[in-house]
Amino acid sequence: MIAPIRPDGAAPVRFWSGWRIFALVAVISGLALFIGANVHLISVAFASKPDCVLQPQTEGAASYRPAKSSC
């Protein structure tokens, strides 16, 4: 592609300057980190078994128990 000639004779301005490339890489990296963290949270949520939690044996005190006995 031929760069347009500026009337003042100066060098043409590049669209993809260093700052724009840095900003684009930073945005893409941030989105990848955000999406990766959410995928991790969802995979941990499906892999965990909250209905199968060991309860401490306490005498005389009321304690919460699992909703169903699947352990």
Description:
The structure is a single chain. With 71 residues, the protein is mainly alpha-helical. It contains one helix and no strands. The protein has one helix spanning 18-47. The longest helix has 30 residues, at 18-47. The protein is rod-shaped, with a radius of gyration of 29 Å. 0% of the residues are buried. The model has no long low-confidence stretch (mean pLDDT 77).
Write the layout of secondary structure elements.
Elements: H1 18-47
Give a summary of the structure in a few sentences.
The chain has 71 residues and is an all-alpha fold.
Report the radius of gyration as a whole number of Å.
29 Å
Count every helix, treating DSSP H or I runs of 4 or more residues as helices.
1
On the 0 to 100 scale, the average pLDDT is 77
Query: How would a textbook summarize the main sheet?
Result: none
Helix proportion of residues, in percent? 40-55%
Distance between the termini: 68 Å
Residue runs with pLDDT of under 50 for 5 or more positions: none
Strands, total number: 0
Q: Approximately what portion of the residues adopt beta-strand conformation?
A: under 5%
**Cα shape:** rod-shaped
Structural class: mainly alpha
Order of H and E elements: H
